[in-house]
Amino acid sequence: MKSLLILGIESSCDETATAIYDSEKGLIGHQVFSQIDLHKKYGGVVPELASRDHIRKLLPMIDNLLKETEKSLQDINAIAYTAGPGLSGALLVGSVMSNGLAFSLGIPSVPIHHMEAHLLAPLLEQESAEMPFIALLVSGGHTLLVLVKSKGEYELVGQTLDDAAGEAFDKAAKLLGLSYPGGPEIAKLAEMGKPDIFDFPRPLSRDKESLDFSFSGLKTSLMYRVKQLRNDDALDDQCRADLSYAYQEAIVDSLVGKTELAVVKYDINSVIVAGGVGANKQLRTKMVDVFSKKGVEVIYPSLEFCTDNAAMIALTGLYRFQQGIINENYQITVNPRWSIDKIYEGKNAYG
Ligand code: KG4
Ligand code: ZN
Hints:
Elements: E1 5-10, E2 15-22, E3 26-34, H1 36-40, H2 47-69, E4 78-84, H3 88-105, E5 109-113, H4 114-120, E6 133-138, E7 143-150, E8 153-159, H5 165-175, H6 182-190, H7 216-231, H8 237-265, E9 270-274, H9 281-292, E10 297-299, H10 303-306, H11 311-323
Zinc ion is lined by residues 114, 118, 139, 275, 308.
């Protein structure tokens, strides 16, 4: 059987990414350009700058990828792109380019849900986890617990009521005068931190019925602590490291605790952790510690597929394409607030 080639395009936030997935050989190439340096001086992503940079980078990156994989546009069978959730302007750049290109080539375009792609990312490297499984999706914009019943059948069982876990890391880094993105910075500093110096709240941890998270109180608590330490002239490097240690512990405990509740509630044998915060070493260690004792398997995509990439978009695009779920009229519309349990509602899969 002739293999199918899917070109994947990701532009939902501050990474521009392209990939080609071959239905027979798997991933044959992928490229990621991070805009971190562009946004660093603002301490966070500036949406308009992100859109403009996607416009600059996307076509040359598609060109490079085709050269690198020794393919031409005529070899591509469908173009999959992130249609949501994300920044609307950034999503529109990917949608306009993907639909324009697909229309001109006379091939289908396939709108993809960014978070579904994150939770299928481990399949880029290994066979599927035993279903049903629980996916913990933790990024700069989302913190979700999803019950994956089958490929395409998802139930949102828990989510953050306020800030996302990645956002909590990023805001803490800003408070401590560290650079963006904050997660890796806090994690690095925490390695030098001592335990039992500071303690931060784990909101909702006593509520064993709820699978939801809350991180805004944690951030406020850090803010007051930093203010007080500054007034006392005590915010030195070791103190910042100790604060980072305790803050990271609080986030990791919340994430592991609620995942544990979900595993028990739905009688699950495997957990997938995905999204940028999934790169956090302490989270990985604690997840394995807690779940190996219970005989529950914990699966992570490798670091390059944990953070935003187009390989996961192309892979998810292949499944959609094979199911016949395509963007029939090359609609440019995107859905910045697309919920993961509404993937299949609506004719063109826009939720
Ligand atoms: O999934 P992602 O690459 O982009 C989206 O938000 O969609 O996630 C980025 C987030 C940022 O908030 C960043 O601070 C966080 O992931 N992050 C980390 C680590 N690496 C990235 N958080 C904690 N520890 C890390 N090692
Ligand atoms: Zn993401």
